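We close this part of the discussion by returning to an individual protein. In the encoding step, the backbone of a single protein was reduced to a row of integers, each denoting a local shape. The sequence in question and its structure tokens are set out directly beneath this paragraph.
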Amino acid sequence: MAKTSIEWTESSWNPVTGCSKVSSGCKHCYAERMSVRLRAMGQPHYRHGFQPAVHEDALHAPLDWKKPQMIFVNSMSDLFHPDVPTSFIERVFDVIRRAQSHRFQVLTKRSERLAVLAPDLVWPHNLWMGVSVENAQYTFRAEHLQSTGARIKFLSLEPLLGPLPRLSLAGIDWVIVGGESGPGARPLQRAWVTEIRDQCVEAGVPFFFKQWGGFNKKKAGRELDGRTWDELPVGVSAQV
């Protein structure tokens, strides 16, 4: 288990590491940058850099974690990457099902594969399934998510790179919005955020604003209209 500073989760679990760029939101991938440091430190899971790899030694780790956690699955990869065998995805889902005291959040940009595999996956009730949507070109990912059997479905609109005026929130339980951070961060416009926030309020969908981003994300903060927005899916408390 690794503690994380990501505002909408508590810990991370990486039975898969490494990825490849699939869309504009991947341009400044934080995980790729971090993998370079981890490889230099001699972390064995990154001995091949950012090439996708599955890790048998990490697969069953959550079964040993005693304290209930909100766990982000594969913060350093994408579970539905084409190089991850379907059988390994099924085994990850099985571990999630067996680790009943935790909640698990899976996030993917490979929604096409998600949609293909979804009918044959056994969906644990403690698994939250999400897709990333960075601009209007990729709203189809939300449609793929809506077709799955996940009990909790969420959208990560981060890094938000453009307006999403026609985003469908049907069947969506939670929306996260955030600006890009770090070197070369692309700007986030306030109007994009407030439009999505207002859509969520109107639809009754919980809204979580993660950050304005920029090179110094701490200085930019995460307040919107004089407050922070830390809403969670309906019926879910901040503690597991």
About this structure: The chain is about 25% helix and 15% strand. The CA atoms of residues 31 and 76 lie 5 Å apart. The helical segments are 30-40, 56-59, 86-98, 111-117, 140-146, 190-203, 217-220.
